[in-house]
Structures are given as structure tokens and as C-alpha cells.
Amino acid sequence: MLSPAMITHFVWMEGTMVPAAEATVPFLTSGFHYGIGVFEGIRAYSTARGPAVFRLRDHLERLHGSCHILGFKELPYSVDQLMTATVETVAKNGFDECYIRPFVWLGDGGWNLTLDSGKPKLGIGVWQQSVYLGDEARSRGLRACVSPFLRHHPAAMMTKAKVSGNYVNSVMAKTDAQRGGFDEAILLDPDGYLTECTGANLFLVRGGRIVTPSTEAILEGITRTTVMTLARELGLEVVETRASRDHLYVSDEVFFCGTAAEVLGVTEIDHRKIGTGQVGPVTQKLQAAYREVVHGKNPKHDDWLTYVTP
Ligand code: PMP
After folding, report:
1. Residues 161 and 74 in one domain
2. Which residues, 6 or more positions from 26, have their beta carbon under 8 angstroms from its beta carbon?
């Protein structure tokens, strides 16, 4: 059942466009029971040339990468085929802006806990959705905590793959954070260094320099590389390195970024004010640059957009 805030009309299921209510998966599906699925989170934005999907090829290449990391031997659709299917799904639903969710799950077998006794199945859903943490979060900023739940050790779960089962960790951390009165949780790795938050990557700004955790135990976010590119184009220095919890506390600014979150400032962490306690100037610059790019207002990065109507 979709949440009432989500509006969708048609879902692409294994090559066929079906009404959303008919896009169902049987209860006895092993991938659903064991969390064996991989997915993407992509967005289409309105532009002067109609809706455009942001960094579609990069997302679908990461989907293929996630399947490969998990161990699916072959995905029955190429990146190019999935690009076409995604664009068709957005067009069929008639949305100007939407969230896009391709999902590959283990179906037809797989009950003996091996991938090879089942088959990967693929669907693409799209929906209109209100923003991740509310529109005002962009100007107001977020209150976050460092979670008592650690991010996966990369030898235990594959953090570079967007595997459904990985998100149990995110759900527990975020539920715990919100029950404690915070908006988001920041997770440490098993050595105690910063990783990311539950569904977005993490950046610190200190002395004019932007720092982001290196990629050992995080999802290599597509927004993360977008923001790094845009920051460098604005003349800002960006460094990928290990950073610790106390680095957060003494930062001038902290922000999160991800497809759903876009760029969101963090004004308080663990009951400590970050910088001035307001969304800072570097975060604001990057928020503006990101919005320009996704809405097709930065010609330099037009190649990041796939227009739905050619
Ligand atoms: N980390 C995690 C755990 C995520 O779920 C996401 C969202 N996909 C991100 C980072 C940000 O990735 P992206 O910018 O590609 O959306």
C-alpha cells in the first residue's frame, strides 16, 4: 500500500506497463523475505524543455554494479534498455517531477539462500512525492545525532551496493533518532569514524575547506560527486578523508546530500550548535548550484539530464 502522499499511475514490470494497483509481487517471494533486492533512487525534475531525469545513466550503472556486487550473474536488461524503460515510465505517468525507483528482486526460487536457485526480476516505479524532510528543512536546517547503531563493516555488508537488506540498519538508526527528537542520524563505522547518514552522504565545512568521508564504508552517492564537482567549480577545495565525531562539532557547517535529500544543512548535532546554528553560506551556495543543475539552468552540465520528451 502506498502512503497517501505518493501518487503513481503505472509501473513498468518486467517489460510491461501495468496499472500501479496491479504491480504486485506474490507473498511467497524469497527476495522479500530475505531482503535480497537492489534498487536505485532517481529523480526527474521540471526544466524549460519539460521533465528531465537527473544522472539517469549513472544511477542505472550503479544498479548494474549493485547486482554484480550482490552476485546476480546476469541482469536481463542493459543500461540502455533501462534508460528507455525509465523515460517511458515517467512519460506514461505524465509527471513533471517525480521520484523513480527501479528495483531488482530475487524471485522464482531462492528459498535455499542462494541467488542461483532464483531469478532476478525487475520493476520500475515512479511517484510524485512531497520532499524528503519537508520543504522548510532546506532553509531551517536539520537537527541530527550520532547514532548508537554503527554503519555496516564493509566486510559484512556491501556498502557500495544499494541492497535492500542494508537498509534495516538505516531504518533502525533513523527510527531511533526520530524517537529521540532528532531529524536524522549520522552513523559511524566500526572504528568510530564518520560514514554517512541513513539515506544521504555527509559533508563538513571547516575553514573554507569541504571535507567528506572517504568511500570505504559508504554508498558512493551520485549527489556526492555532483556536489564535489559543483563545489570545485565554485573554487572551493574538497577533500575526501577520514573524519571523526568531534570534527563535526567544530565544523563551521555540516550538510547532507542525496537524491531525495538534495542538499540539506545541519544546524545542530548531539545538542551542540554547528557554526552559527543556521544553514551556512557554503551550504546555501551548493543548494543553489544543485537546483540550477537539476532544473537544466546550468548549460555546462546539460549532459547530466535525460529529457523525457526528446
Ligand atoms: N548513502 C545512502 C545510505 C543512501 O541510501 C543514499 C541514497 N541513495 C545516499 C548515500 C546518497 O546517494 P545518491 O546521492 O546517489 O542518492
Report:
1. no
2. none
- Relative to the CA of 159, which ligand 1 atom is closest? 3
Choose the residue to mutate in 223, 226, 229 for probing ligand 1, maximizing ligand atoms within 8 Å of C-beta. Answer: 223
Task: Give the residue from 82, 109, 127 where a domain finishes.
Answer: 127
Residue 270 within any structural domain of the chain: yes
Residue 240 and residue 161 share a domain:
yes
- For residues 142 and 277, what is the distance between their CA atoms, to the nearest angstrom? 10
**Residue 89: inside a domain, yes or no?**
yes
- Domain limits at 250? 136-294
Question: Model pTM?
Answer: 0.96
Q: Is the CB of residue 215 less than 8 Å from the CB of residue 240? A: yes
Axis crossing angle, helix 222-233 with helix 281-294, rounded to the nearest 10 = 110
Note the pLDDT tens digit of each residue in 2-56: 566 689 999 999 999 999 999 999 999 999 999 999 999 999 999 999 999 999 9
